Amino acid sequence: MERAGDESVSSGFFSCGPTGMPGKICQIFEAVMNTHRRGFYEKYIKLPQDTVLALVALAVLSPVLGLVALAVRLHLGAPVLFRQERAGKDGRSFTLYKFRTMSDRRDAAGVLLPDEQRLDGFGRFLRSTSLDELPSLWNVVSGSCALCGPRPLYVKYVPLYSPRQARRLWVRPGLTGLAQVSGRNAIGWEEKFSYDVRYVERITFWGDWRILFKTVRMVLHREGITAPGCATAEEFKGGKEARAEHEQAPCDPRRRRSWQSRGRCRAENGLPHHRVPG
Where are the transmembrane segments (predicted)? Predict the structure, then answer.
């Protein structure tokens, strides 16, 4: 973390101050940077344990990885792997690896078809059995992910978190988590984030192993998968606090508020931005 006087703070994805990101993101930054007290297990055991387990899983499942890679190559073509930037610990982005599950089918104008039309039975099978996520074990080995933790979500969601929801960024994201074994995609965003924060605030050895065993059971029974007709989970539009902020009436630049919000309001009303000491 770097400081420039008392006006600018930056770390990873976040940057607050006169030249940084104002308002909502600064609140989230403050929540993320709060001291997270780690227990003995989280501090000394979790990372090496996850690394060893991921390496063992990659070795044991290497034949499965090879077969799935071959099936994807024959059915969907190249590339075999799907790469996407996700938000990790402290909001820093990293590249998440998965097997491809959707084709590149396009319409007559060359535009990609909707996800639902590009996801066929083969892709749905990979997703429902979580076989598409086997390459993510490499993210665990590299240290960008944990086996258990809040799921890594899109970077674009970070500014939409409430300060409490942003606590999920205190730890490395996981391949599975408390939210996944408590409903997977069958529960809404607010409930998922509630489970994520509950996990982050109490990380234990036995808690992680319970999550791993429950994950295996849910995958075998294909519980909580994406609803029929939907290729992906519903997009996150922001928590209740964020939605209320966007739905409020146009702001009054004369109203007393923080200098960041005041500047944003003046810009919205076509007025020059003058920083006034608050």
Answer: 52-76
**Phi then psi dihedrals of residue 157, to 5 deg:** -80, -20
- pTM for this structure? 0.74
Q: Which two tokens stand for residue 67?
A: 């077969």
If one counts every other C-beta atom within 10 angstroms of the C-beta of residue 222, the result is: 13
Task: Check if the beta carbon of residue 173 is closer than 8 Å to that of residue 150.
Answer: yes
Q: How many residues does the chain have?
A: 278
- For 110: left if phi > 0, alpha if psi spans -120 to 50, otherwise beta; the answer is left
Q: How many CB atoms lie within 10 A of CB 226?
A: 17
Contact 173, 199 (CB under 8 A): no
| Domain regions of the chain by residue span | 1-34, 38-221, 249-278
Segment (H or E) for 47 = helix 46-60
Per-residue model confidence as pLDDT tens digits over 36-78: 678 999 999 999 999 999 999 999 999 999 999 999 999 999 9
Task: Round to whole Å and give the CA distance between 163 and 266.
Answer: 25
| Burial classification of residue 14, based on how many CB atoms lie within 10 Å of its CB (0-12 exposed, 13-18 middle, 19 or more buried) | buried
